[in-house]
Amino acid sequence: MMNKVVFNFKSNWFEEGVVNKIGINGLWIYFNIRKFKLQYSSNICVFSLDLLYKEIQQYYKTKNRKYSKSNIREIIFKLKKFGIIDFDRKYNMKNNNDLCKCELLDLPILDKNFKPVSSDDYYITVDTDVINKIFKLDMDERHIITYYCLRKFSNANQITVSYEKMAKWLGVSKNTVNKYCIELEENKIIANQYSRSQAGHKCNSFILTDNKNSDNNKLVSKIAEKNNVKRDIEKIKKELKNKNIKVTNRAFEDVKEYLPYLKDAEKKKISDFKKKHIVYAIKYLYFELLDELKNRKNNSTIEEVATAKEDMINNVNVDKINWGENNPFEKSYYAS
Fold first, then answer.
1. For 254-271, how does the pLDDT look when each residue is reduced to its tens digit (9 = 90+)?
2. Which of 326, 218, 216, 208 is nearest to 263 (CA)?
3. Whether residue 320 has pLDDT greater than 60
4. What residues contact 216, with CB distance under 8 A and at least 6 apart?
């Protein structure tokens, strides 16, 4: 893997349809070509197909057939076709080790202070440290391109952009973009604060991690964690409902005959789950404990059964079973 590389590309490639034309795969190949820029040149890269192939494949745990040498060759010619790069037309890349002297086209023009000279030259900065981080989190180039699509608005405190617009820019479906953004948020690379339009419609409002702003990263982590818990709760609710399990205190009452067979550690774990949200406690009880509790009841001695029955007689209401300090069924737990 090469040392850290930082480079810029035009932000208007998204809204002007360039990325849509070359595809997410095309922009990913372009990102990797940029790593081969000559040190003292602003727009010349030198690489062979074999070197480029190895650079791309090192990101994947297993060989990615999508980026075979023949596919990479095809994408490189697509980049040439749409005016992203250029090279001698005699170069056909049939020999994988032949060096290609490639000229980068349509680069942002900057003044001596590295400011764009016109609105057409606004740019997005790509950092290979960010790319490496996203791959280490078991995401891939699709998440990287989605992230840099949002980076287009990096000057804004909050990025308000619809999934429909991003889908059009990236050449994928709205649901696909939604999926990539959720996965980025699950890994706390971005966070969606959500907002309301003047008409009252729910809108995206993204904030992104920034290597130079630790306070911002803490905010991203906090909001992302909150959203991740909400999604997790909704997922568990759906699982429970599909099994016809009530998502209320009644779920415990429905199996109260087995509750006396809980061990102290299990009672505490239910209590801890409940402090997070009732659905976690219900899922733990039904999906992880219930079969074992049934076995304990069936295999109990006469004395143990009698003790359990006495518990049930003395504690008809599940809220009154003696849980000690870790009672997950106290009324106060359900106040929210």
1. 888 888 888 889 889 998
2. 326
3. no
4. 207, 209, 210
pTM of the predicted model as reported, rounded to 2 decimal places: 0.83
Which distant-in-sequence residues (6+ apart) come within 8 Å of 105 by Cβ?
43, 83, 84, 85, 86
For tokens 């300090």, the residue is: 325
Q: CB burial class (10 A; 0-12, 13-18, 19+) of residue 277?
A: middle
Measured in degrees and rounded to the nearest 5, phi and psi for residue 155 equal -80, -10
3-state SS, one letter per residue, for the chain: CCCCCEEEEECHHHHCCHHHHHHHHHHHHHHHHHHHECCCCCCEEEEEHHHHHHHHHCCCCCCCHHHCHHHHHHHHHHHHHCCCEECCCCCCCCCCCCEEEEEECCCCCECCCCCECCHHHCEEEEEHHHHHHHHHCCCCHHHHHHHHHHHCCCCCCCECCCHHHHHHHHCCCHHHHHHHHHHHHHCCCEEECCEECCCCCEECCEEECCCCCHHHHHHHHHHHHHHHHHHHHHHHHHHHHHCCCCCCCHHHHCCCCCHHHCCHHHHHHHHHHHHHCHHHHHHHHHHHHHHHHHHHHHCCCHHHHHHHHHHHHHCCCHHHCCCHHHCCCCHHHHCC
Pairing relationship of beta strands 190-192 and 99-104 according to DSSP bridges? unpaired
Distance CA 151, CA 11 (A): 9
Task: From 148, 203, 189, 145, select the one nearest 26 (Cα to Cα).
Answer: 145
pLDDT tens for residues 29-81?
A: 999 999 999 988 889 999 999 999 999 999 998 888 899 999 999 999 999 99
Query: Residue 125's beta-bridge partner residues?
Result: 8
- Phi, psi for 99 (deg, rounded to 5): -80, 135
Q: What is the pLDDT of residues 268-294, one digit of tens each?
A: 999 899 888 889 999 999 999 999 989
Closest by alpha carbon to 246, among 284, 282, 202, 299?
Answer: 282
Decide: 195 and 205 in contact? Cβ < 8 Å: yes
Tokens of 62: 């297993």
